[in-house]
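Async update (no meeting this week)

Hi team, since we skipped the sync, here's where things stand on the single-chain job. The sequence we agreed to prioritize is pasted below, unchanged from the tracker. I ran it this morning and attached the output directly underneath so nobody has to dig for it. Comments welcome in thread, and please keep replies under the output.
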Amino acid sequence: MRTAQPRCDILVHTHTWVEYIEKMCLPGVTCANSQDHKSFLITHARTSSRNATAHALAQMPMSGKKRARSDGVEDEPLADVARSLAIVTSAYVAIDGYDIARTAKRQQREAGIYIDGIQYGEVNPEAFATALSWCAPRAGETFVDLGSGSGKAVLTAALLHPLASATGIEILEPLHKAAMRAHEAVLAADARALRTPEVRFECGDALSHPWTDCDLVFVSLTCFTDEMVERVAADAQRLRSGSRLLCTSRALETGSALRLLRREPIKYGRGMLTFLAYERV
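Output:
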């Protein structure tokens, strides 16, 4: 049963995020609409932290200030979640994934290259962090994002969880390079904040990557073609027992190979996005 304690945690969460931004704000960066970098981030923090904390409180038993995981092990304090999300926010201030993707797609069309199912969608770190927690990541596990875009999901996972490795596979080279820049920004801001020692990004066809030996898999199926979804479902049946797969929008038809852990829409920008978490039986 929840008590009044979570309300105090919300305040701690918000203030910790803002205070951390004031300490680690990247120098010399000017944001859009003429706001300086720090002011922009603090404004974003005051708004976004409420959403991030709301997601956390919705599924975290609030005894003290630590998250209780589904396996009974205490996870990182809420203040550390805020700090990690602040680092992700800072790393992408100068990176516009949508603009990069639009330019890359236009160049492809001009070159006569048309690829179905390749549509960029920006990852919301707060929502992704919530959905990933449904998979109860454990220390030493491996994570892969199939179609990692500018790398937000990979860096969010690596900042929040002590994994062995976090890998992102992206087919569009400009987005791949953006992910590399974001990773460098995180290292420059606070390398010790990365709880995962090995973070890597690869440029290539994500569905051709040997991902079935990973413990945690994330793939956004929202804009995939039916054929691509079927391919993911077929490959998911080769995952090891106990591996978890997190996807968006569309269910995977795998017979009894995957057990649905949770399916729920999460606030995502101005709308909602449905996440589905599976476990390999």
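Quick observations from my side:
The two ends are 31 Å apart (CA to CA).
Residues 37-59 form the longest helix (23 residues).
Reply here if anything looks off.
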